[in-house]
Design a protein that fits this description.
By secondary structure, the protein is an alpha/beta fold. It is 37% helix and 13% strand. It is built from 18 helices and 15 strands. A four-stranded mixed sheet has the order 2-1-3-14. A four-stranded mixed sheet has the order 8-11-7-12. The protein is globular. The termini are far apart. The N terminus is likely disordered.
Length: 460
């Protein structure tokens, strides 16, 4: 696509998008068809999201039929698909964005600096609202320069998935707890599979994308206590991954890994697991929905902890907090009404319903305390936060890296194309830490990214 064609398409998309987003403050239409007047008007609050689920649509309709009707709010909900992030940016840049929206990504700075996102502190009811989150807020993810822009809502947790039939067929009675046991089990499953079934599965086609990050990078935290950036030392330490990467490469040399990983994305790997051809794979909590709603695995499968190098020194498994809504600049026009919608979505009832209906995993354990566990295989294991830690945000967004990213480097190692893994990881550490040093010299504050008390050791 030419640059000019791209500009035309973006302009066209923006024009189409903005056409349906204007509202007339003097006269609006409420959810129940009530026509507002200057004395008793119904205010339209727009909420944009990438969640197209029936649950979300139903909840927005419920708001309009109850709280919205009582408070004079017409909640205009708009759910979009793959083009959501681009469409949102077009609208925000044109000052036609919604009052509330789902932010996609982890680095909010550009949106905040552009004036596209408002801090909660700008709203009168925020101090009371934030009391429920005082021990959960993650600096530099939920906050920026001392202001709070979002709160923890959902959580992505990590585990290992395994095929029970293949374990039984290979005579394996216990689920591996260490990487040495994984290597041994993978070899047995592959031998019993006679070229049709393999012990371990990974995917490298999308190593730099979200799926690659979660399926490959989650292998490390329970063994080394971090995901590449050591918050205790305030430096990158990819070299700590070396012994685990060596175990995976050993499985590749043993021919225990499902073939063709270089050309496989997470969807392909998941499909092969569902077909009963892979004994073990790393997975994030969204696999529960994928393997119960979208796919129907041929064999019974289970969920186990991510294996470690040494069971005597186990760290917590990696989990990442996700927020759900942020305030757009448009919320300045009707701050009280906008905050009512925000409170509704973040209410304990909303979160509890989302949990009980198996829509997503909630970050706030208090909100779902005593709630019914969804009848979905794996939900109980993935929703147990006692063995997980909520990661802080590493300073990746502040550095200007020279050379390959850690995702691509790890991908090269897993493909078996690196002869000296230690040397490759040492070079990776140097690139990242040099970039971090340059950022600090340019004024970057390392303070929020260094914590001497940081410890993810799993205490039993």
């Amino acid at each position: 696509m030419s640059k000019w064609t791209g500009m035309v398409l973006m302009t066209a998309m923006g024009t189409t998008l903005l056409a349906g987003c204007s509202s007339t403050p003097e006269k609006t239409t409420g959810a129940a068809g009530v026509t507002g007047t200057p004395d008793n008007k119904v205010v339209t609050i727009r909420l944009w999201h990438n969640d197209k689920s029936e649950f979300m649509k139903r909840k927005m309709d419920e708001f309009n039929a109850t709280i919205g009707k009582e408070q004079g709010i017409n909640l205009e909900f708009r759910a979009m698909g793959n083009d959501y992030a681009d469409a949102l940016k077009v609208a925000l840049a044109a000052d036609q964005g919604p009052e509330l929206y789902k932010f996609v990504g982890t680095v909010k700075d550009p949106f905040i600096n552009a004036g596209w996102m408002l801090p909660l502190e700008d709203f009168a009811k925020a101090p009371e609202f934030l009391k429920d989150y005082k021990d959960m807020i993650i600096p530099e993810y939920n906050t920026y320069k001392g202001k709070t822009y979002s709160v923890p809502f959902v959580v992505i947790t990590t585990k290992m998935l395994y095929n029970k039939r293949l374990f039984e067929k290979a005579g394996i009675k216990e689920v591996p707890q260490t990487w040495d046991e994984v290597v041994s089990a993978a070899k047995k499953i592959t031998a019993a599979g006679e070229g049709k079934e393999y012990g371990f599965g990974t995917h490298l086609k999308d190593v730099g994308a979200m799926g690659g990050k979660w399926s490959n990078a989650v292998m490390f935290a329970p063994s080394v206590g971090h995901m590449g950036y050591d918050f205790q030392k305030g430096q990158y330490r990819f070299i700590d991954f070396k012994p685990i990467l060596e175990k995976v490469v050993q499985m590749k040399q043993d021919k225990s890994i499902f073939p063709g990983a270089e050309g496989m994305a997470i969807d392909n790997l998941r499909a092969q697991f569902a077909e009963g051809r892979i004994g073990m794979m790393m997975g994030a909590s969204w696999e529960v929905t994928n393997l119960t709603d979208a796919l129907k695995p041929k064999d019974d499968w289970g969920v186990a902890h991510v294996p470690v190098l040494d069971t005597a020194k186990r760290y917590k498994e990696y989990a990442q907090i996700g927020d759900y809504l942020v305030f757009g600049a448009a919320a300045k026009k009707n701050p009280e009404k906008s905050f009512i919608v925000y409170e509704y979505v973040h209410s304990k009832k909303f979160q509890r319903d989302m949990h009980e209906e198996g829509v997503d995993f909630m970050a706030n354990a208090k909100a779902i305390e005593g709630a019914k566990t969804p009848d979905k295989k794996g939900w109980k294991e993935f929703s147990d936060l006692s063995t997980s830690y909520f990661t802080k945000t590493p300073p990746d967004g502040a550095i200007k890296l020279e050379g390959d990213t850690y995702q691509n480097t790890i991908g090269k190692i897993l493909s078996g194309s690196v002869t000296d893994i230690g040397k490759e990881l040492e070079g990776l550490d140097k690139r990242y830490n040099d970039a971090l040093t340059r950022a600090i010299k340019d004024g970057f504050d390392l303070g929020p990214f260094k914590d001497g008390a940081w410890d993810t050791t799993l205490k039993r």
